[in-house]
Amino acid sequence: MITIERPVFFVGMGRSGTTLLVAVVCAHRDLGWFSQHFARMPGFPAVTLLSRLADLDPGFRRSVARHGETSSPLERVRVAPAEAYSIWERCCGEKFLYDFMLGTTATDRERHCVRTTVAKVLRYQGKPRFTSKITGPPRIEYLSSIFPDAIFVHVIRDGRAVVESLLRVPFWRDSYRFREPAWRGGLTDDDLAAWRRDGASPLALAGMQWEAVLRITRREARQFVPERYAEVHYEDFVRDPHRVIDEIFDLCGLSEDPRPHEFLDRRIELRDMNYRWRERLERREIETLDQLLADPLREFDYDADGRRGEDGAAVRRPFVGVRTP
User: Fold this and answer.
1) What predicted TM-score, i.e. pTM, was given to this entire model?
2) d(C-alpha 91, C-alpha 110), whole Å
3) Tens-place pLDDT, residues 117-150
4) How many Cβ atoms from other residues are within 10 Å of residue 171's Cβ?
5) Distance from first CA to last CA of the chain, Å, rounded?
């Protein structure tokens, strides 16, 4: 079998800060990743040789543009990690894009395709470890059937901020996701029937899917990877990013490396954008989300205004030492 040691997967609902966090993490000297160039040409892994430019100088590494900001032509050419769903679809089929994949494990063909592709990327990039960002359904059981020693880092953000952001970005607002679930298998028929009875609002649907992603991520993590699962909050990252990055590297068994910190300081403008949901959502919308998401918001330590405590580790491992049923 192709040897790939302890890959690291960052999971979480879209618009939770995963792009920002992963961009910084991927500056570590030992981590290889799927680039946006490879995502455009999924049949040509040799294109990831371009990613070696990012090791020469942080200036070759693309910074993270905020929604609504326009990147320069030069910035778009610079190298960056990508979710690269075209690559996952090539190996795993369309189910990887549109399904929670609960109770699903990889076939021999799928496993071989993914592992071979990752091995080629690591060879072209000259890296010993692999990392990837995959948002929406966590797919923990499926990914663990491909990489039995994989580490999963769940990035969590206040659901009200996530919903407000989702309703504004084109990939959500201008698609079927405004009218029906983004993925199969996360919401039950009873969930959807209740949603339709209450008016079938896009805001409520987005909130229900945020809750489903968090709930299923924790359930799969506890069942399949309790010792290899951790959680980090967007709010903690923007408050103390260097601490969070170091704790993630420690979790993953990665050595200290100044380059992610240098990239963060030189190329990333870090601001907490959670204030926007309080300003942009109408009162009735906030009341709807407060009621709909009351339990998960409380479970993940968010108060009515979205504040969280500052005590303890920034990277938490809730299931270490917990027996699975």
Assistant:
1) 0.95
2) 5
3) 999 999 999 999 999 999 999 999 999 999 999 9
4) 11
5) 31
Alpha-carbon gap, residue 319 to 140, rounded angstroms: 15
At 60 the pLDDT is: 85
Write down the domain spans for the chain: 8-316
Distance CA(209)–CA(177), nearest Å, equals 10
Q: Is the pLDDT of residue 67 over 60?
A: no
Q: How far is CA 107 from the centre of its chain?
A: 24
CATH number for the region 8-316 comes to 3.40.50.300
155 Cβ contact list (under 8 Å, min separation 6): 10, 11, 12, 16, 17, 18, 21, 232, 233, 234, 237
CA distances from 210 to 243, 281, 289 (A): 26, 17, 11
List the alpha helices (DSSP H) in 129-181.
140-146, 159-166, 170-173
For residue 254, CA distances in Å to 6, 7, 128, 260, 314 come to 11, 11, 11, 12, 17
- Please list the alpha-helical segments (H only) found in 225-321: 234-239, 241-252, 258-267, 275-280, 283-292, 294-299
From 13, 305, 270, select the one nearest 157 (Cα to Cα): 13
In this prediction, residue 324 carries a pLDDT of 62
Burial 56-92 (b: 16+ CB within 10 A, else e): eebeebbbbeeeeeeeeeeeeebbbbbbbbbbbeebb
Q: Any idea how long the chain is? A: 325
Token digits of residue 283: 């009162």
Asked if residue 293 lies in contact with residue 180, where contact means CB atoms within 8 angstroms, the answer is no
SS3 190: helix
